[in-house]
Amino acid sequence: MKKRMPVSTIMTKDLITVNHTDDLTTAEKLFKTHNIRHIPVVSGKEIIGMLSFTDLLRISYADAVDEYETDVDTMVYNMFTIEQVMAKALVKVSPQTTIKEVAEILAEKEFHALPIVDNSELVGIVTTTDLIEYLLEQY
């Protein structure tokens, strides 16, 4: 295993983002269409938050009728904005941050995705799935 590999080698560069002014229905469609679980929230080119599919499930959980239902009740989305639901206290890393450092951050924190920022511009995202796939390739 290479010890000083930068996170830029495993990060997702072709990003799906939402604008902070978009609605939660738009975000849900992106989650489902692209089969992803985390979406950076941007204002221009600057990342201002991170939205996870779990965030959407949390706000709609009270309205769930069937515990096996996979569709989120979109009526609840009209009550909240993306900015109200997204995580705002972000930990950001640079493309040069090592994969090991990223793994340590994700293991210590309670989230599963990190935005990769270069000169204040969002250039990628790395998730726990990216890390697991990288580790599997090593074996």
TrEMBL record:
The protein's name: CBS domain-containing protein
Taxonomic source organism: Pseudotenacibaculum haliotis
Entry-linked PANTHER family: CBS DOMAIN-CONTAINING PROTEIN, CBS DOMAIN-CONTAINING PROTEIN CBSX3, MITOCHONDRIAL
Superkingdom as given in the UniProt entry: Bacteria
InterPro entries: CBS_dom, CBS_dom_sf, Diverse_CBS-Domain
Residue span, CBS domain: 11-67, 86-139
One Pfam family per UniProt: CBS
Keyword annotations from UniProtKB, A to Z: CBS domain
